[in-house]
Design brief:
The protein is of the alpha+beta class. It folds into 2 domains: 3-208, no CATH class; 229-378, no CATH class. 25% of the residues lie in helices and 29% in strands. The chain has a 7-stranded mixed sheet with strand order 12-17-18-14-15-16-13. Strands 1-2-3-5-6-11 form a 6-stranded mixed sheet, with helices on both faces. The longest helix is centred in the N-terminal third of the chain and has 23 residues, at 101-123.
């Protein structure tokens, strides 16, 4: 799928939304190059093409059209190419210190491949593209380009100066910055593209005032209400545990001492602080509710154990199948560790109150949350 192949009416609406927003550039910048905030591109794309907006989930894709993942980027590109960030690995920075040249390039690309695979598994994506909105003086230039997992054996032309390692892969140029733990890719403007001329409005402030005076009293307004949500860690929050995944509880409960347990006998821990700060968010202990995973499948779940400290599914194996097998790719009998969390870039899940199902059952959704999200959510700092 390419954006150019989408329905004409949807494309024209998308181009118009970009053109209108870019024409208001002097609200933000004095440059002749149009200003376009990346959130505007994401929202315009999703609104026009009926895409699912994934940008807030901190995943490899910003949007999803059917089974296609879309990475959306906007940047200034006065020439024919631009080096832009495609992945960041701050939590793994210490693991890169001793790596050089090919070893470092292969390690970084492998991690990026794993995160692309995670996003595909998480949202049921079968393929992906980058959609680029490049900004030049007086115009926007739109094009699609490849977005896929790369074969690390094809890495060539490696140059490592100690600060960055640069390399080529299948004709595409990459650079990994050591101090920022960030991977960049060179995007080349192709011959097949869409030009959108931009006339920047001289006084956008006056235009907005006129628009408000003319329509302000009659314009349709909306009162936005943010859905209630909580963030649950996949690791221990107990003092002295250093944010490690417990070996015999939580998502490794199957490994507990005592009676034999099946590998899928696990739960997501609910810290006391969640119940303290968000009392009543979950139904009463042992009361079933529906839990929707990102692919749309709905699991039966409930809060269990003393102190309502565990989020479990029925069958118990369902949450293990989604988290441990499908996302973390763990083998039967393999422990989940802190290393797994850091490599895939998430160590928590976000649970959102979605209301009720058509049958009247409480409905929640679950998705991954970025590293450090739990501490930010409850107002503390990672130890």
């Amino acid at each position: 799928m390419l954006t150019l192949d989408l329905p004409l009416e949807a494309k024209e609406r998308y181009y118009k939304l970009l053109q209108v927003n870019a024409s208001l550039s002097l609200l933000f910048s004095d440059s002749p190059t149009p200003f376009l905030q990346y959130r505007v591109v994401e929202n315009a794309y999703c609104r026009s093409f009926g895409a699912t907006n994934l940008s807030r989930s901190d995943t490899a894709f910003d949007a999803q059209v059917g089974e296609i993942g879309v990475g959306l980027k906007t940047f200034i590109c006065s020439g024919g190419k631009s080096l832009e960030k495609v992945a960041e690995f701050n939590a793994l920075a210490p693991s890169f210190r001793e790596l050089r040249g090919r070893e470092l390039a292969e390690r970084v690309l492998t991690l990026r491949n794993e995160r692309i695979q995670l996003a595909q598994d998480l949202y049921g994506v079968q393929g992906a593209i980058y959609h680029i909105v490049a900004r030049r003086s007086g115009e926007l230039v739109l094009f699609d380009t490849s977005y896929k997992q790369e074969d690390t054996s094809l890495i060539s032309d490696i140059r490592d100066n100690g600060k960055a390692v640069r390399f080529t892969l299948a004709g595409e140029h990459y650079s990994f910055n050591r101090s920022k733990s960030t991977l960049y890719r060179e995007f080349i403007v192709p011959e097949l593209l869409q030009h959108i001329p931009i006339e920047i409005i001289e006084d956008p402030f006056e235009l907005l005032l006129q628009l408000f005076d003319e329509q302000g009293s009659s314009a349709k307004t909306i009162q936005l209400r943010e859905k209630k949500r909580v963030i649950l860690p996949l690791y221990s929050t107990q003092s002295g545990q250093n944010r490690e995944v417990p070996k015999r509880s939580g998502l490794n409960q199957w490994n507990a001492n005592g009676r034999p347990r099946s590998y899928g006998e696990v739960y997501i821990p609910i810290p006391r602080e969640i119940h303290k700060q968000h009392q009543g968010f979950f139904p009463q202990r042992d009361e079933p509710f529906a839990l929707r995973i990102p692919t749309g499948e709905v699991l039966s779940a409930k809060v269990c154990q003393d102190g309502a400290k565990a989020l479990m599914t029925n069958p118990n194996d369902a949450i293990a199948d989604w988290l441990l097998r499908r996302l973390f790719k763990l083998e039967e009998g393999e422990l989940l560790t802190r290393k797994h969390l850091d490599e895939l870039g998430f160590d928590a899940v976000v649970i959102t109150d979605e209301g009720f199902t058509e049958e009247g059952e409480r409905l929640y959704s679950i998705d991954k949350a970025p590293l450090g999200s739990y501490e930010t959510f409850i107002g503390s700092s990672p130890s």
